[in-house]
Amino acid sequence: MRVRIVHVSQPTHAALAAGDLAGANRLSPVPLTPVFVTDSFRSTFARRATQLLDQPADEPWVTGIIWDEDLGTAVGAAGFHGSPDADGMVEVGYSVDPDFRRRGYARAAMQVLLDRAVAHPDVRVLRASISPDNEPSLNLVASFGLERNGEQWDEEDGLEWIFEIATPTPTSG
């Protein structure tokens, strides 16, 4: 499976947030399917569309499209919540189209995000926040070595457990 995350512009995020699939497809570098204008996807794209108006530099970091290179289709959305914060932390987020779940796409997207975090000199910590009853995601982050180190209340998702892993820091020779 060859997967990449295709980043989309602020206007594409805004079109998806508005439920305008045709408009989003005019702007997107890859074709999008109706799942991207369902409520769960729209809320994420709305949050990021607003964020990108205030912080345009976050565009290459935030939610993009999980693209299956072999199938030539969009299978979900994944990215970071923003660029690295002052402490070097980035938080991952991902959602796979229900028609493509249990096929390894979340794992593949997580690997792409982890690789990017490790390669970027400003990133020192990768975080994921997950509902305690989301067993597939709990298993996924555990398989990548993220460890639970707290919890938080999310206004949209309720109780979330926080998992983190330190990313290797470059050594000078």
Key structural traits:
173 residues; Aminopeptidase; seven-stranded mixed sheet; 5 helices
In short:
This protein is α+β, with helices and mostly antiparallel strands. 32% of the residues lie in helices and 28% in strands.
Strand content is 25-35%
CATH architecture: 3-Layer(aba) Sandwich
* Rounded radius of gyration (Å): 16 Å
Q: Biggest sheet, strands in spatial order?
A: 1-2-3-4-5-7-6
Output mean pLDDT.
95
Taken together, the total number of domains comes to 1
Overall structural class, as computed from helix and strand content, comes to: alpha+beta
Helix and strand string, N-terminal first?
A: EHHHEEEHEHEE
Q: Total strand count, please?
A: 7
CATH H-level homologous superfamily name: Gcn5-related N-acetyltransferase (GNAT)
Helix percent band:
25-40%
CATH T-level topology: Aminopeptidase
- What is the top-level CATH class? Alpha Beta
Question: Cα distance, first to last residue?
Answer: 36 Å
* Low-pLDDT residue spans: none
Largest sheet: 7 strands, mixed
Q: What general form does the structure show?
A: globular
Number of helical regions? 5
Structural notes for this entry:
This protein has 173 residues and is α+β, with helices and mostly antiparallel strands. It has a single domain (3-166), classed as Gcn5-related N-acetyltransferase (GNAT) (Aminopeptidase), CATH 3.40.630.30. It is 32% helix and 28% strand. The protein contains five helices and seven strands, in the order E-H-H-H-E-E-E-H-E-H-E-E. It has helices at residues 10-17, 21-27, 39-54, 105-119, 135-143; strands at 3-7, 64-68, 73-80, 89-96, 125-130, 147-154, 158-166. A seven-stranded mixed sheet has the order 1-2-3-4-5-7-6, with helices on one face. A hairpin with a 3-residue loop joins strand 6 (147-154) and strand 7 (158-166). Helix 1 runs antiparallel to helix 2 and helix 1 (10-17) runs antiparallel to helix 3. The radius of gyration is 16 Å and the shape is globular. 32% of the residues are buried.
